[in-house]
Amino acid sequence: MTLRAALRAGTKVLTAAGVESPALNAEELVAYTVGRRRLEVLLRLDESLDAGQIDRLESLLERRARREPLQHVLGTTAFLEHEIRVTRAVLVPRPETECLAREALQLLNRMNVPHPAVLDFGTGSGCLAISIASGFRGSQVHALDLSLPALEVARGNADRNGVADRVQFHQGDGFAALHTATPPGHPRLQFDLIVSNPPYIPTAVIQSLDPEVRDFDPPAALDGGPDGLSFYRRLATEAGGWLKPDGWMAMEFGDDQAPGLTALFTVNNWRDQRMEKDLSGRDRILIVRSPGGS
Ligand SMILES: C[S@@+](CC[C@H](N)C(=O)[O-])C[C@H]1O[C@@H](n2cnc3c(N)ncnc32)[C@H](O)[C@@H]1O
User: Which of the four pLDDT bands, split at 50, 70 and 90, describes residue 1?
Assistant: First the structure.
């Protein structure tokens, strides 16, 4: 079978299964099977797959046709310039979250603090913590998550991206995860910047999401409570105590959540609120300054 024929057959299988962008998915899976980049496959359409490769491709296509996310089938995804391993323990990092990582790096660059302390609240695969530790070399990054299996993946990702020595991981429910990091009698950690892409899907909406998300992303990474805002309420009321007086917080949020968040952070006296858009032009990131500053 030639690469051309494999691409045609793969696209047909994935189209029938209702996969979005079936041709692109088939190209990725064929490229993975033959150990080449997607563009290289497109330039070598007359090359042949051997019998072992055909078997492997069939099983990858079956998995994708059952709506397992492409990133799970391939085992990794790209986040900015980093390769991030993904398993069912972690949310697949989204392109929107790359915008949050860029905003965080810009905030750090403007702060003029040589060794800023940064917290990633709900780190999942570790994509944000890793891109910050790598993009701002002086930063001291802490990352917390409720899920131990997620933290194992995040630690592995920090290691494979060369920042394991500059990210400390903490397990626990929200900021309580940090209490064990602060021995009694020691001052509590204080951050220059907190970033978070918390769970923000309203509970009742989860069932209507694409199978790739509903059936494969961890429920605890999606569920933001009845109106999707539960974690922002915790951040609005608790995060100020973990920030330095003029510290910043940057959060990703979902469609239609901007008005509710503006009200929530205003009522809780956060300063200098602003929104940033994602690549499709939708309000996606909220940036606020600590209520406790000058
Ligand atoms: C939407 S995911 C974001 C993962 C990653 N930061 C990203 O942007 O791809 C939210 C993360 O918050 C974690 N989480 C959920 N409830 C939590 C809690 N009570 N305390 C700490 N982390 C929690 C989930 O396990 C999940 O990893």
Answer: very high
Are residues 212 and 100 both part of a single domain?
A: yes
Q: How far is the CA of 231 from the centre of ligand 1 (A)?
A: 10
User: Is residue 30, in this structure, part of any structural domain at all?
Assistant: yes
* Residue 34 CB contacts under 8 Å (≥ 6 apart), including other chains: 3, 41, 47, 49, 53
pTM of the entire structure?
A: 0.94
97 with 191, same domain: the answer is yes
Between 40 and 180, residue with greater pLDDT: 40
Q: Ligand 1: residues whose CB is within 6 Å?
A: 91, 93, 97, 122-125, 127-128, 144-147, 150, 173-174, 197-199, 220-221
Q: Judge contact between 202 and 228, C-beta under 8 A.
A: yes
CATH code of 19's domain: 1.10.8.10
Please tell me the distance between residue 61's alpha carbon and the centre of ligand 1 in angstroms.
29
